[in-house]
Recover the amino acids of this structure.
C-alpha cells in the first residue's frame, strides 16, 4: 500500500533520531571566540550595578563543523522554491534571483549604520527613492513609504493613515468593509485600528456583490478593503463602481497588494480608484520569503493621503542630493529606522533587471500559466468559478471528498510524495475544500505539466485507492503530525531538566 | 526572458491549449477604463553585469560605518558576525522557503525556530518566546497591546528613557485607537524617574494601567532599576514589560529573574548585519501563564504518526488566518531568517563566547569613557551603571566635531539630538543638546580608542 513515488526533493534520508543543537557538542567545544581583551577587565558587579547574571544561559557549546552539519541536515528537511514547484496561492513563490542576494550584502549597504550622516548614505537614499518611484509608477499611486516590514504591517500603516485623514476632517467613522474572500490579515488589521469589521458577500461571479456593498455602506464606514484580483484569482469587473460607491459614502478604498503579480503594466490600483495599496516585495518583487520573513510591505497612496505617511521618507532635493523628511501630518513611525532596507535593495535590483516591459511580461506569463493549469485540471477537479482567471485560480476537492472520502488536506499531503509543495488549502473560506493554485511565471511548461499530471494522478489514486491518499505523505522526512497534541501540551522550548 | 523559462513557441502552444488567440484576451475582465494602455515608465532592463555595476555604483557612493572606526549604536550595533552565519542563511532550502505551513517538508525551518525560541527563553529568563517580530520597536508596541489583553485594561505607562523611535512607534500604535499611553517624564540622572511629578509612580495611579514599559539598558546606555520597576508595576496590578539587548544578556541579569512579565528587544546585535537598520528582528518572550495571548508564530515539538520527533506551528488559534478580527495580532510574515541567523550566531559564539563578547564590549566601553573624560573635552552628565553604551556631554559644537572625526576615519557616536525627538530624554534641554551617545563593541581595539581620544582632544 505504501507505494513510493519519485523521491521528494525536500526529503532527506533518515539520519536516525533527531537531535537538537543543544544535544550536540561538549562543554569545552568552541567555535568563534572574541580576541583577548586589550583593555583592563571590569568588575562586572560594580559596572552593572549588581545586575549580573548568576547562571549562564543555556546556549549550545559546539564547534563549527557541528554547526555546519546540523544546519545542513535541517536544510535537507526543508522544501524551498529551489527544491521544486511551490504553487501556494496568493503567496507568489517565484524564483529568487541570486545576484540580488549578493547585492544586498555589499558592504556599502550591509555595513551602513542608520544614524550615519546623510552625506555618507546618498547611494542608499537614491536606491530607496528609485524603488519608491518604480512602485508609484506600477501602482498609479504617487506617494510611497518603504517603512512597513511586511504586508500586514503595510495594511496597518494604511489604515492608520485613513484614520488620521478622517480625524482631520472631524469625521468619526467606525467600520471597515471587507469581502468574505479577504485574507485573515485584513480583519485582524481592522481590529488593531479600533474599527469593526463588516463582511460583504461575493456574488455568483466571485466578485463583490454590489447591492450588498451598497446596503452596508454608510457615513460610519472608514474604508472598503479589497484584494483585486481577489483571492479567487478573479479580476473584479465592477471595480470602478465599487471604489466610486466607497468614495460616495466618504470612505476610502484600500487594495491589498498580495495579488499584484497579475497586473503589473496592465492595470494600476490607482487607476481603479484605490486610495492606498500595500506591495509585498517578497511576493511580486522576488525577494525571498526566508521561511517566514523578512519581507517588506511598502504602502503607496494618493496625494491627499501623502501627508499622513509614516516617516522619515527619503526624497530627492532640487540640488540632486538625497535627504530624509517627515510628512507634515505624519502618523509617526511604524517601526524603527527606515524599513527592511536589505529587502529593498533586492526588490530594486529586480525592478532594474526587468524594466517596465519585463514586469508586464511577468504578469502576462503568470496569468497565462495559471489559465493553462486551470484548463488542464478543470475536468478532474471542480472549478469554483468558471471564468478566465488571473495569476491564480481556485479548485474544489469536493468531488473527491463526496465520492471517495478523500479531503483536500489528503490531496495536499499526497502532492508532497509527488515532489511538489501543495497549493494554499482551505482558503478562500467561501470555497468548500479549496485548493488555491498560483504557479507564478518562473515555472517552465514542463514543470506546469508535471504538476498537472501529479494532480490528475492523485485524483485517480483517490478513486482507486483512497486509503493511499489519506495516509500520505510517505516519502517526506516526517509524516503527518500530531498537531492537536502539540497544541494541547505545548512544548515550546528545550529544557535541560526532566 | 529573464526568469521566465517558458519559450515563445511554448507560449503559443499554451494559448492554443486554452483556446485563446492572444494573451490580451486573458485580461478581458479588466475594464477598458482601467487598462494602462501604455508601457510602464521605468528604466530599461539591465543585464546582470550592468545591473551589478549600477547597484555597486550606488553602494560605493556610501561610506559604511563598518569601514571606519565606529562608535555608533543607539539601537543598531557593529558587532562581528562569524562567517558560518551567512553560510547557513544562504542555503536555498532555508531562504527560498515559505512560512512552514506544511510541516512534513519544513522540518528544517521549524526545528531551527524551535531552537531559536529555546535560546531566547534561556537568555531572557522567560518560558515562551515567539518566532520573531518585525523589529524591537514593533515588539515593544505589541507587548503593550498584549498586556492590555491580559489585564483587560487599556492604558500603558512608558518610561521616558526608552529610545525615542520606539516611543514614537508605540504612540503610533496607540493612536490607532485601541489603547492609551502615558509617557512618564525623564529624570536628570539619565534613568527612569520613579517619584517625580511626572514620574512612573504617579503615572501608574488610577487602577487602569495594563503595563509599565521600560528599556534597560535605556537609550543613553544606562541600566534601569528593574527591582523598583517590578514592585511598582505589580503593586498596580500591571505587567512589567522590559526591553533589553540580547547580546548583553550573556552577563547581564535576565529580566525574567528581575520580575519582567514580557521581555522584548531588537535582535540585530545577534549576528545580523546593520544594513541601514533592517532587516533584523524583534524578539518577544513571556510567561507560560500568558502564552495564549502572545502575538506571532510559535513552533512546538510533537510526534508524527510513526512516533518520530517532529516540529509544527502551534497554538495557531491565536493567529489572524484562523481568528481573523479576534486574533492576538495581524502579524503574518515575521523575520524568521534573521532569527535563524541569531540562533546560528549564538551557537557560533557559544555560551562562553557570548559572555566574553558581552564582557569585552562592557570593558571597552568603560575604558573609552575614561579616556574621553581624561581629554577634558567631555564631561559625565551622571554617574549611573551602564553596559556597553554611554552618553557624555561635549564642550564644543557637536556637528563640527562629528564631521572632523569622520574625516579622520572615526564615527564619533550618535549625537542625541540626531535621534529624532519625541518627548525629551533628559529634562535639561541644553544638556540634551550637548550629549553624544557612544557604543563600543568587541570589534574596537585599544589602539583605535586611544587614537580616537587623542584626535578628538586635538580638535
Amino acid at each position: 500500500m505504501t507505494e513510493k513515488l519519485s523521491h521528494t526533493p525536500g526529503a532527506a534520508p533518515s539520519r536516525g533520531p533527531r537531535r537538537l543543537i543543544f544535544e550536540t557538542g561538549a562543554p569545552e567545544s568552541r567555535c568563534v571566540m572574541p580576541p583577548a581583551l586589550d583593555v583592563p577587565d571590569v568588575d562586572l558587579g560594580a559596572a552593572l550595578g549588581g545586575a549580573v547574571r548568576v547562571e549562564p544561559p543555556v546556549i549550545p557549546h559546539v564547534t563549527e563543523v557541528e554547526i555546519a552539519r546540523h544546519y545542513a541536515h535541517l536544510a535537507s528537511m526543508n522544501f524551498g522554491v529551489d527544491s521544486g514547484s511551490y504553487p501556494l496561492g496568493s503567496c507568489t513563490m517565484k524564483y529568487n534571483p541570486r545576484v540580488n542576494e549578493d547585492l544586498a550584502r555589499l558592504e556599502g549597504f550591509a555595513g551602513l549604520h542608520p544614524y550615519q550622516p546623510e552625506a555618507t548614505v546618498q547611494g542608499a537614499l537614491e536606491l530607496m527613492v528609485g524603488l519608491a518611484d518604480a512602485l508609484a509608477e506600477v501602482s498609479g499611486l504617487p506617494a510611497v513609504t518603504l517603512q512597513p516590514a511586511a504586508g500586514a504591517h503595510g495594511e496597518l500603516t494604511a489604515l492608520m493613515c485613513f484614520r488620521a485623514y478622517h480625524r482631520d476632517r472631524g469625521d468619526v467613522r467606525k467600520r471597515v468593509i471587507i469581502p468574505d474572500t479577504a485574507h485573515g490579515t485584513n480583519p485582524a488589521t481592522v481590529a488593531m485600528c479600533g474599527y469593526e469589521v463588516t463582511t460583504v458577500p461575493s456574488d455568483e461571479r466571485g466578485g463583490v456583490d454590489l447591492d450588498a456593498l451598497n446596503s452596508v455602506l454608510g457615513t460610519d464606514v472608514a474604508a472598503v478593503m479589497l484584494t483585486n484580483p481577489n483571492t479567487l484569482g478573479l479580476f473584479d469587473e465592477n471595480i470602478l463602481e465599487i471604489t466610486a460607491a466607497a468614495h460616495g459614502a466618504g470612505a476610502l478604498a484600500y487594495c491589498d497588494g498580495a495579488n499584484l503579480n497579475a497586473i503589473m503594466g496592465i492595470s494600476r490600483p490607482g487607476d481603479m480608484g484605490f486610495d492606498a495599496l500595500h506591495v509585498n516585495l517578497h511576493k511580486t518583487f522576488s525577494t525571498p520569503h526566508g521561511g517566514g520573513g523578512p519581507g517588506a510591505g511598502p504602502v503607496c497612496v494618493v496625494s491627499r493621503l501623502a501627508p499622513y505617511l509614516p516617516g522619515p521618507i527619503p526624497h530627492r532635493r532640487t540640488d540632486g542630493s538625497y535627504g530624509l523628511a517627515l510628512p507634515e501630518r505624519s502618523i509617526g513611525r511604524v517601526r524603527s529606522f527606515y524599513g527592511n532596507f536589505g529587502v529593498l535593495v533586492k526588490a530594486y535590483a529586480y525592478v532594474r533587471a526587468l524594466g517596465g516591459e519585463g514586469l508586464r511580461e511577468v504578469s502576462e506569463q503568470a496569468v497565462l500559466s495559471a489559465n493553462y493549469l486551470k484548463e488542464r485540471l478543470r475536468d478532474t477537479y471542480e472549478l469554483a468559478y468558471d471564468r478566465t482567471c488571473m495569476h491564480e485560480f481556485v479548485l474544489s476537492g469536493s468531488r473527491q471528498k463526496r465520492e471517495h472520502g478523500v479531503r483536500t488536506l489528503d490531496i495536499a499531503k499526497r502532492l508532497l510524495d509527488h515532489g511538489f509543495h501543495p497549493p494554499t488549502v482551505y482558503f478562500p473560506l467561501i470555497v468548500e475544500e479549496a485548493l488555491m493554485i498560483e504557479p507564478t511565471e518562473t515555472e517552465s511548461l514542463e514543470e506546469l505539466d508535471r504538476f498537472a499530471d501529479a494532480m490528475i494522478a492523485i485524483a485517480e489514486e483517490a478513486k482507486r485507492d483512497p486509503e493511499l491518499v489519506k495516509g500520505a505523505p510517505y516519502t517526506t522526512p516526517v509524516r503527518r503530525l500530531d498537531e492537536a497534541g502539540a497544541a494541547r501540551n505545548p512544548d515550546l522550548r528545550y529544557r535541560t531538566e526532566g | 526572458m529573464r526568469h521566465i523559462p517558458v519559450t515563445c513557441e511554448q507560449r503559443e502552444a499554451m494559448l492554443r491549449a486554452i483556446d485563446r488567440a492572444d494573451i490580451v484576451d486573458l485580461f478581458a475582465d479588466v475594464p477598458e477604463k482601467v487598462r494602462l494602455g501604455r508601457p510602464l515608465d521605468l528604466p530599461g532592463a539591465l543585464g546582470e553585469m550592468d545591473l551589478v555595476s549600477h547597484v555597486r555604483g550606488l553602494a560605493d557612493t556610501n561610506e559604511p560605518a563598518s569601514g571606519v572606526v565606529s562608535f555608533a549604536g543607539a539601537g543598531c550595533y557593529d558587532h562581528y558576525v562569524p562567517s558560518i552565519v551567512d553560510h547557513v542563511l544562504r542555503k536555498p532550502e532555508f531562504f527560498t522557503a515559505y512560512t512552514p505551513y506544511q510541516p512534513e517538508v519544513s522540518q528544517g525551518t521549524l526545528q531551527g525556530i524551535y531552537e531559536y525560541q529555546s535560546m531566547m527563553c534561556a537568555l531572557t529568563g522567560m518560558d515562551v518566546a515567539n518566532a520573531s517580530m518585525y523589529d524591537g520597536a514593533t515588539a515593544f508596541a505589541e507587548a503593550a497591546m498584549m498586556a492590555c489583553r491580559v489585564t483587560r485594561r487599556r492604558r500603558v505607562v512608558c518610561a521616558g528613557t526608552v529610545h525615542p523611535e520606539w516611543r514614537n512607534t508605540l504612540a503610533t500604535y496607540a493612536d490607532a485607537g485601541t489603547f492609551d499611553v502615558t509617557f512618564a517624564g525623564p529624570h536628570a540622572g539619565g534613568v527612569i524617574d520613579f517619584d517625580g511629578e511626572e514620574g512612573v509612580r504617579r503615572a501608574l495611579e488610577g487602577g487602569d494601567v495594563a503595563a509599565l514599559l521600560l528599556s534597560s539598558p535605556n537609550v543613553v546606555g544606562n541600566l534601569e532599576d528593574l527591582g523598583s520597576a517590578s514592585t511598582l508595576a505589580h503593586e498596580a496590578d500591571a505587567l512589567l514589560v522590559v526591553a533589553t539587548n540580547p547580546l548583553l544578556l550573556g552577563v547581564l541579569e535576565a529580566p525574567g529573574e528581575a520580575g519582567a512579565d514580557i521581555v522584548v528587544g531588537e535582535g540585530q546585535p545577534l549576528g545580523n548585519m546593520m544594513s541601514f537598520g533592517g532587516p533584523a528582528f524583534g524578539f518577544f518572550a513571556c510567561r507560560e501563564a500568558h502564552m495564549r495571548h502572545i502575538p506571532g508564530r510559535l513552533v512546538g515539538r510533537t510526534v508524527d504518526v510513526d512516533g518520530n520527533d517532529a516540529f509544527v506551528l502551534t497554538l495557531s488559534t491565536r493567529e489572524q488566518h484562523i481568528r481573523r478580527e479576534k486574533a492576538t495580532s495581524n502579524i503574518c510574515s515575521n523575520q524568521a531568517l534573521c532569527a535563524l541567523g541569531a540562533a546560528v550566531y549564538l551557537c557560533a559564539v557559544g555560551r562562553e563566547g557570548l559572555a566574553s563578547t558581552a564582557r569585552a564590549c562592557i570593558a571597552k566601553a568603560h575604558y573609552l569613557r575614561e579616556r574621553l573624560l581624561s581629554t577634558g573635552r567631555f564631561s559625565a552628565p551622571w554617574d549611573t551603571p551602564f553596559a556597553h553604551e554611554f552618553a557624555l556631554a561635549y564642550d564644543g559644537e557637536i556637528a563640527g566635531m562629528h564631521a572632523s572625526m569622520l574625516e579622520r576615519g572615526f564615527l564619533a557616536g550618535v549625537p542625541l539630538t540626531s535621534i529624532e525627538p519625541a518627548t525629551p530624554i533628559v529634562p535639561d534641554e541644553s544638556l540634551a543638546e550637548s550629549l553624544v551617545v557612544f557604543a563600543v563593541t568587541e570589534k574596537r581595539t585599544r589602539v583605535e580608542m586611544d587614537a580616537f581620544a587623542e584626535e578628538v582632544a586635538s580638535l
Q: What stands out?
A: Chain A touches chain B through 211 residues (CB under 8 Å).
